[in-house]
C-alpha cells in the first residue's frame, strides 16, 4: 500500500512539474509577443506602412492653350486606357491572351507588347506600365474594368489625353505633343545636372506624360508642363492598388495655361475661305502687333500624333502632293512679286535717288544693257509717277527706280520691314527667306552682283524669298504709318527671346505715299484690284497690293506665241497668287497677307480672299480686348514665368 | 471557470461523491449532458467562434475564400456534437478502443506511405471517399490512448522498473517513424513530445529522461542531415532569421517576415476586426490556416494574442487538473496526454508564427481552418471530458502483460 501511495504522490508531483513547464513555455510565448507587439511595435508598424503604401509618380496636368478670347485650342479629354505593369504579371503571354479575349488586339500587336513587357522587366523598369490600348470605347472600358481585377498586373484607368478641339485649324501654330523619344529627352535635358536629367527621364516614362514635339507645344514646354507630384497608393501583396490616400502636400502642380493672340473664329473663317485651295494667310492687328490669324492649309490633325501616329498614316501625310505637314505661313518661302514694290519705292525715296513725282515712261518693256525686261502689260502704261506706278503695278517704273536706287538700299529697306529674318513667335519651322545683296551673292555663289539682277529685285523676283508672315509684317508696318511694331503670337505666356522688334525708323511721309498707292490699287479706277476695294460694310475700304510669284520662267518662245499666263496650263505650273492688304484704309486696324498657291492671279484669286477675311475681322471685331488683358509678358521662354 | 460543481473539489471530497457518480450510468441522456462541465465547453465554443471570426476577416476580401468561415463553422458544429458523444462514452470503452484505434492508425500511416497523395511538399494525405484526411493527425490521439492503455495494464504497486517503459517507447516510436518517413517533421516532434509527457507522467526515472533529452539535443545536427530538402530549407531560414541575416524575400522568410510585420504592426490594441492591412491585403501566405495568429495579432493586438493564450491556458490547465482527479491510470494518462497533444499544437504553431521555431506545418487548434485538426482537437477534448465524467471509475487493471 505504501508503494502504491508513493506512485500516486509521484504522479501528482510529475503533473505539477509538467504543468509548471507548460506555464514557463506559455510565459515565453507571451514574452515574445510582448516584445513584438509592445516593445517593437513601431518598427513593425513602420514596416507595414512601407509594405502597403507606394508612392507613385503623379504627372502634372499639362497647361491648356487658349485663343485670344479664352477658347481652348489644346486641352484634355478623358479616355479609357488599359496597361500592364510588367513586374506584376507572372506570365506575360497568358495575361495578354486574357486581355485580348476582352478587347480587340491584333496578333502583331500582342507580339510587340509581349516583347515590351519582357524588355521592361529586363531593364529593371518593371514598374512602368506598358500601354496595351488607348482610347477605349465605353463598352470596352466597362468590360475591362469588370474583369481587370482577375488579371494580375492589368490596370484599367481613365487618363487625360491631350486633345486639340480645333483639329487641323492650329496644327502648324500649336504643333503637337508626343511620347518623349530619346532625342526629345536629350534636347530637354541640355544643361541639366545628371540627377535632374534622370528625374526628367523617369517622369517622361510615365504613360500620361507627353512633351511638345512641334510648334507652340514645344516652344512653351516648360511653361505648360507643370511639376510632378506623388500619389500615395495603398496596394495589396500583389501590387494591385486598393485605394488612394489623398495628400495635398504631394499633389502635382499643373502647368499654366497659355494664351495666344489668335482669334480662333477668324482662323476658322480664313480656313473656310480657302476651301480646297492650298496656301497661307496671316493677319496682324496693326496697333498691337498681335497675330490674329495664322493659317497654313491644308494641314494635319495634331490629335493623330498624341498617341503616336502609325507609319502608314504618316507616310500618307508626307507624300500628299499638297504637303499638309508644310507650315506655309511662317516656313513657306515665296518670291513676293509685286507685293514687294512698296519696299522698293520706300528705298527709292529714302535713298533720295527718286522723288515721288519723278516720271518714267512705260511702253511695255525696259532695255538695260543688251537685254530687255518686260512689263506685265504688253502695250505699256505710259507715263508713270510713284502713285500710279504702285496703283498699276507698272514693272517698267520699278525697273527704273530700282536701278537708280541700287541693291544695297533696297536690301536695307527690306530688312526694316522684317524680311530676311525668321520670325518664330514661339512656333517651330519658321524660315527667314532671303534678301539678296552683293555681299551675299559673293559669299554664297562666288559671283559678283550684276545690275540686271537689281531690276528683278525691283519687281520682287529673282533670289528674293519671303514668307507670308513677313509679308503681313511689312503690310502692318505700312498700315501703322511706319511706327515700330512688335509682333506677338503669345498673348500670356513666355515670349520668344529670338524675335526682335521692327523699330528701325520709317518716314511717315514716305509711308503715306505707299498707303495712297495701295489705296489706289483697290479704290481708284485702273487699280489692279479695283473690284476688291469695297468691303461691303458700307464705309470702310481695303487698301492693298497684288503680287504674282512665278513658279516657272516663261520662255521667250511662249511669250512670242502669246502664252504668258492663264488657267489653261497645268495647275502645278501656275503662278502663286499673292495679296497684301490692310483695312480700314483710312484708319488701319488689320493688316494681312494672303498667298494662294497656284492661284495664278494676285488680284483675281488672293485679293477677294483678303477682302473677305478683313471684312470678317472688322465685322467680328477680332482685335477687341483679349481675355488675358493687356498685360502680356515679354519674358523670354525658360527665364521665369509670369504670374 | 464558473462554479459548476466540478471544479475546485479536492480528491477527498470527490471520493465522497463516489456513490452518486456510480449512478451515472443510470441517468437519462439529458441529465448526463447537464452534468458536463459547461464552463469548459463554453470556453471551447468561444475560442472556436473567435477562430471563425478571424477566418472571416482573413478571407472575406478574397472571392474564392470568402465562405471559408461558414465551412469552418459547419465543421466545428459536427466536431462539437462528436465531442459531446465522446464525452458520454464510459472510460472503459475508450480503453477498449485504444488498441484497435492504434492498430488502425498504424495501418493508415502505412497506407499513406504506399498510396497517399502529397500536399505542401510531403506525402500526408489519404483519400477516403470524398474527403482527404491526414492520418498523422489521428495518430497523435491514438498513440496517446495506446500509451495510456499500456500503462494502465502494466503499472502495478510493485512496478517502477525502467524496463516497462521500453514497451511504451516502442508504442510511441512506431507511428513516429512512419510519420517521419512521410516526411512530416513537425508532427513527428509533436507526437514524440506528447507521448513523452505521458511516459514522464507514468513515472519514467528522471535520470533516464535527462539522459534522453541530452541525447536528443546531441542528435539535432544528425537529424538535420536526414531531413527532406524543404525541411532543411525551413531550418536554414529559421537559423538565418535568428542570426539576423536577410534571406530570400519571397520564400519562407517572406512568410515569417510578413507574419511578424502583421503581428508587431497590431501593437497593443490592434487595428480592429477587418481592419488589418497586412491581413486584408494578402501579405501573409497561409494566413487562414497555419498563420491565422497573424490576423489575430494585427487586428486585436497584444491584448488579443494574450487573451487567446490565456484562453488556451485555462482550457489546458483545467484539462490537466481534471486528469489529476481521475482514479484510473488510463483516465489520468489519456486525459493528460490529450491535453499535451493540444498544448504542443499551440506551442509549435505560435512558436513558428512568432519566429521562435522553424516553420513546421502545424495548425492552431480550434482557430485555424482545417478539418482533420479540428476533429483531432475536439476528439482530444471528448476524451478529456469523458475522463472527467468518469473520473471515479476504478477500471479493473489486471495486468495482461
Automatic annotation (TrEMBL), chain A:
Compositionally biased intervals (Polar residues): 630-643
Disordered: annotated segments: 623-643
Membrane topology: Single-pass membrane protein
InterPro entries assigned: Beta-lactam/transpept, Beta-lactam/transpept-like, PBP_dimer, PBP_dimer_sf, PCN-bd_Tpept, Penicillin-binding_protein_2
Listed GO CC annotations: plasma membrane
Gene3D superfamilies the record matches: DD-peptidase/beta-lactamase superfamily (3.40.710.10), Penicillin-binding protein 2a (Domain 2) (3.90.1310.10)
Biological process, per Gene Ontology: cell wall organization; peptidoglycan biosynthetic process; proteolysis; regulation of cell shape
Main location: membrane
Penicillin-binding protein transpeptidase domain: residues covered: 279-614
Name of protein: Penicillin-binding protein 2
TrEMBL record, chain B:
Keywords, sorted A to Z: Cell membrane, Cell shape, Cell wall biogenesis/degradation, Glycosyltransferase, Membrane, Peptidoglycan synthesis, Transferase, Transmembrane, Transmembrane helix
GO BP: cell division; cell wall organization; peptidoglycan biosynthetic process; regulation of cell shape
Top-level taxon of the source organism: Bacteria
Membrane-topology annotation of the record: Multi-pass membrane protein
InterPro entries hit by this protein: Cell_cycle_FtsW-rel_CS, FtsW/RodA, RodA/MrdB
Signal peptide: none
Record bears the keyword Lipoprotein: no
A Pfam family of this chain: FTSW_RODA_SPOVE
Localization: Membrane
Predominant cellular place of this UniProt entry's protein: membrane
A molecular-function term among this protein's GO annotations: lipid-linked peptidoglycan transporter activity
Transmembrane intervals: 36-56, 68-91, 97-117, 162-180, 186-204, 209-227, 300-321, 333-360, 366-387
An annotated GO cellular component: cell division site
Protein name listed in UniProt: Cell wall polymerase
Organism ancestry: Bacteria, Pseudomonadati, Pseudomonadota, Alphaproteobacteria, Hyphomonadales
Amino acid at each position: 500500500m505504501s508503494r502504491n501511495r508513493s506512485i500516486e504522490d509521484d504522479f501528482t508531483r510529475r503533473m505539477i512539474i509538467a504543468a509548471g513547464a507548460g506555464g514557463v513555455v506559455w510565459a515565453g510565448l507571451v514574452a515574445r509577443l510582448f516584445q513584438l507587439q509592445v516593445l517593437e511595435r513601431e518598427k513593425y508598424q513602420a514596416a507595414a506602412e512601407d509594405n502597403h503604401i507606394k508612392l507613385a509618380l503623379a504627372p502634372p496636368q499639362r497647361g491648356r492653350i487658349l485663343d485670344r478670347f479664352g477658347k481652348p485650342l489644346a486641352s484634355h479629354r478623358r479616355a479609357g486606357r488599359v496597361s500592364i505593369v510588367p513586374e506584376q504579371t507572372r506570365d506575360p503571354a497568358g495575361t495578354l491572351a486574357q486581355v485580348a479575349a476582352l478587347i480587340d488586339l491584333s496578333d502583331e500587336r500582342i507580339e510587340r507588347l509581349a516583347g515590351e513587357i519582357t524588355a521592361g522587366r529586363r531593364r529593371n523598369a518593371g514598374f512602368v506600365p506598358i500601354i496595351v490600348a488607348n482610347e477605349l470605347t465605353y463598352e470596352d472600358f466597362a468590360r475591362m474594368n469588370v474583369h481587370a481585377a482577375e488579371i494580375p498586373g492589368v490596370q484599367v484607368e481613365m487618363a487625360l489625353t491631350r486633345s486639340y478641339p480645333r483639329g487641323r485649324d492650329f496644327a502648324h501654330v500649336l504643333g503637337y505633343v508626343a511620347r518623349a523619344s530619346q532625342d526629345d529627352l536629350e534636347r530637354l535635358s541640355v544643361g541639366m545636372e545628371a540627377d535632374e536629367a534622370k528625374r526628367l527621364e523617369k517622369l517622361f516614362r510615365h504613360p500620361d506624360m507627353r512633351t511638345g514635339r512641334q510648334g507652340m507645344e514645344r516652344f512653351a514646354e516648360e511653361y505648360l508642363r507643370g511639376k510632378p507630384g506623388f500619389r500615395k497608393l495603398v496596394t495589396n501583396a500583389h501590387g494591385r492598388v486598393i485605394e488612394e490616400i489623398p495628400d495635398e502636400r504631394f499633389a502635382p502642380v499643373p502647368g499654366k495655361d497659355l494664351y495666344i493672340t489668335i482669334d480662333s473664329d477668324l482662323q476658322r473663317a480664313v480656313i473656310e475661305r480657302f476651301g480646297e485651295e492650298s496656301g497661307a494667310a496671316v493677319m496682324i492687328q496693326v496697333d498691337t502687333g498681335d497675330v490674329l490669324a495664322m493659317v497654313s492649309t491644308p494641314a494635319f490633325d495634331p490629335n493623330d500624333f498624341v498617341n503616336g501616329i502609325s507609319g502608314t498614316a504618316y507616310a500618307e501625310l508626307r507624300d500628299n502632293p499638297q504637303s499638309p505637314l508644310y507650315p506655309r505661313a511662317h516656313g513657306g518661302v515665296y518670291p513676293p512679286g509685286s507685293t514687294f514694290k512698296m519696299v522698293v519705292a520706300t528705298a527709292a525715296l529714302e535713298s533720295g535717288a527718286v522723288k515721288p513725282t519723278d516720271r518714267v515712261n512705260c511702253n511695255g518693256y525696259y532695255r538695260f544693257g543688251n537685254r530687255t525686261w518686260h512689263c506685265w502689260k504688253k502695250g505699256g502704261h505710259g507715263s508713270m509717277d510713284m502713285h500710279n506706278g504702285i496703283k498699276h503695278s507698272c514693272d517698267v517704273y520699278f525697273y527704273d527706280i530700282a536701278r537708280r536706287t541700287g541693291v544695297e538700299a533696297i536690301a536695307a529697306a527690306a530688312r526694316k520691314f522684317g524680311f530676311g529674318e525668321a520670325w518664330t513667335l514661339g512656333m517651330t519651322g519658321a524660315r527667314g527667306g532671303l534678301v539678296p545683296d552683293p555681299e551675299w551673292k559673293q559669299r554664297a555663289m562666288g559671283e559678283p552682283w550684276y545690275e540686271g539682277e537689281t531690276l528683278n529685285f525691283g519687281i520682287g523676283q529673282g533670289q528674293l524669298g519671303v514668307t507670308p508672315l513677313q509679308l503681313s509684317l511689312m503690310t502692318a508696318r505700312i498700315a501703322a504709318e511706319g511706327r515700330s511694331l512688335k509682333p506677338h503670337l503669345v498673348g500670356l505666356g513666355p515670349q520668344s527671346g529670338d524675335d526682335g522688334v521692327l523699330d528701325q525708323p520709317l518716314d511717315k511721309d514716305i509711308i503715306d505715299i505707299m498707303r495712297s498707292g495701295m489705296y489706289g490699287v483697290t479704290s481708284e479706277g485702273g487699280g489692279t484690284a479695283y473690284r476688291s476695294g469695297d468691303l461691303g460694310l458700307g464705309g470702310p475700304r481695303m487698301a492693298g497690293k497684288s503680287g504674282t510669284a512665278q513658279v516657272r520662267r516663261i520662255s521667250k518662245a511662249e511669250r512670242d506665241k502669246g502664252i504668258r499666263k492663264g488657267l489653261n496650263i497645268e495647275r502645278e505650273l501656275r503662278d502663286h497668287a499673292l495679296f497684301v492688304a490692310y483695312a480700314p484704309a483710312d484708319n488701319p486696324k488689320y493688316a494681312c497677307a494672303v498667298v494662294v498657291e497656284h492661284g495664278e492671279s494676285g488680284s483675281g484669286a488672293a485679293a477677294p480672299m483678303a477682302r473677305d477675311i478683313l471684312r470678317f475681322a472688322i465685322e467680328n471685331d477680332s482685335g477687341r480686348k483679349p481675355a488675358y488683358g493687356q498685360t502680356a509678358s515679354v519674358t523670354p521662354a525658360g527665364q521665369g514665368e509670369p504670374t | 471557470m464558473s462554479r459548476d460543481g466540478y471544479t475546485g473539489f479536492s480528491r477527498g471530497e470527490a471520493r465522497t461523491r463516489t456513490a452518486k457518480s456510480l449512478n451515472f450510468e443510470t441517468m437519462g441522456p439529458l441529465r448526463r449532458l447537464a452534468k458536463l462541465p459547461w464552463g469548459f465547453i463554453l470556453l471551447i465554443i468561444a475560442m472556436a467562434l473567435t477562430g471563425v471570426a478571424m477566418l472571416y476577416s482573413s478571407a472575406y476580401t478574397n472571392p474564392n475564400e470568402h465562405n471559408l468561415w461558414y465551412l469552418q463553422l459547419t465543421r466545428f458544429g459536427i466536431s462539437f456534437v462528436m465531442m459531446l458523444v465522446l464525452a458520454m462514452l464510459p472510460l472503459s470503452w475508450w480503453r477498449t478502443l485504444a488498441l484497435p484505434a492504434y492498430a488502425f492508425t498504424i495501418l493508415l500511416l502505412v497506407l499513406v506511405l504506399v498510396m497517399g497523395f502529397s500536399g505542401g511538399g510531403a506525402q500526408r494525405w489519404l483519400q477516403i471517399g470524398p474527403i482527404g484526411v491526414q492520418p498523422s493527425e489521428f495518430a497523435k490521439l491514438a498513440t496517446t490512448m495506446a500509451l495510456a492503455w499500456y500503462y494502465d495494464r502494466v503499472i502495478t504497486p510493485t512496478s517502477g522498473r525502467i524496463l516497462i517503459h521500453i514497451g511504451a517507447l516502442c508504442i510511441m516510436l512506431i507511428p513516429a517513424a512512419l510519420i517521419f518517413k512521410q516526411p512530416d517533421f513537425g508532427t513527428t516532434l509533436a507526437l514524440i513530445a506528447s507521448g513523452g509527457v505521458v511516459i514522464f507522467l507514468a513515472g519514467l526515472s528522471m535520470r533516464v529522461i535527462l539522459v534522453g533529452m541530452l541525447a536528443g539535443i546531441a542528435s539535432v545536427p544528425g537529424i538535420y542531415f536526414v531531413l527532406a530538402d524543404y525541411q532543411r530549407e525551413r531550418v536554414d531560414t529559421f537559423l538565418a532569421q535568428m542570426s539576423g541575416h536577410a534571406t530570400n524575400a519571397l520564400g519562407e522568410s517572406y512568410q515569417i517576415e510578413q507574419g511578424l510585420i502583421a503581428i508587431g504592426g497590431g501593437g497593443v490594441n490592434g487595428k480592429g476586426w477587418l481592419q488589418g492591412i497586412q491581413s486584408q491585403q494578402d501579405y501573409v501566405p497561409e494566413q487562414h490556416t497555419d498563420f491565422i495568429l497573424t490576423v489575430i495579432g494585427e487586428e486585436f493586438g497584444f491584448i488579443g494574442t494574450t487573451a487567446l493564450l490565456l484562453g488556451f491556458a485555462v482550457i489546458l490547465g483545467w484539462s490537466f487538473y481534471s486528469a489529476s482527479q481521475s482514479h484510473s491510470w488510463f483516465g489520468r494518462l489519456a486525459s493528460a496526454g490529450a491535453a499535451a497533444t493540444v498544448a504542443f499544437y499551440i506551442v509549435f504553431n505560435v512558436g513558428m508564427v512568432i519566429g521562435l521555431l522553424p516553420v513546421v506545418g502545424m495548425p492552431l487548434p480550434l482557430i485555424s481552418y482545417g478539418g482533420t485538426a479540428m476533429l483531432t482537437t475536439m476528439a482530444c477534448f471528448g476524451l478529456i471530458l469523458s475522463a472527467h465524467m468518469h473520473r471515479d471509475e476504478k477500471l479493473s487493471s489486471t495486468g495482461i502483460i
